[in-house]
Amino acid sequence: MREISREGEEKVHGVRAVRYRGILDHRTVTLRMAPDVRTKTDQARDILGSDLPVFADAWVDDRGRLVQTRMSVNLSGAQVTLTMALSDIGERVSVTVPKAADTIPVNEVSGILNG
């Protein structure tokens, strides 16, 4: 992130945390994107003439652990916001993979972090 500012203290899911806000650069936004989605995102950046305006918030607890993130982009009135809460830090994680019939493939740029 760049242009980082401390936005104050908040409670996130019962945990006291400091919120930081900044801007993500193009390299960070496209990190680990599928190649075809990255190409479309690169094209969008080229049309704009600068990085896509992606803002990020990070909430950090008093032990220095990330407890929540939020990224948002607003392009010509089309706004996308992605929030991820991290809880039960240090606990075992169990994941149930959905059936293929219950999923929707992402095959075009329609939000941030696709791919």
Total helices: the number is 2
Structural class determined from secondary elements: alpha+beta
Distance between the termini: 21 Å
Helix content: 10-25%
CATH architecture: Clam
Q: Please indicate the percent range of residues in DSSP E strands (runs of 2 or more).
A: 35-45%
Output the CATH topology: outer membrane lipoprotein receptor (LolB), chain A
Number of structural domains: 1
Q: Which regions have little confidence, pLDDT < 50, spanning 5+ residues?
A: none
Mind telling me the C-alpha Rg? 16 Å
Run of helices and strands: EEHHEEE
| Overall pLDDT score | 84
CATH class division: Mainly Beta
- Largest beta-sheet characterization: 5 strands, antiparallel
Q: Give the overall shape, derived from the CA principal axes.
A: flat
Give the strand order of the largest sheet, numbering strands 1, 2, ... along the chain: 1-2-3-4-5
Q: Please, could you describe this protein's structure?
A:
The chain is an alpha+beta fold and 115 residues long. It has one domain: outer membrane lipoprotein receptor (LolB), chain A (Clam), CATH 2.50.20.20. The chain contains two helices and five strands. The protein has helices at 26-30, 35-48, and strands at residues 2-12, 15-24, 54-61, 66-75, 78-85. Strands 1-2-3-4-5 form a five-stranded antiparallel sheet. Strand 3 (54-61) and strand 4 form a beta hairpin. The longest helix has 14 residues, at 35-48. The two termini are 21 Å apart.
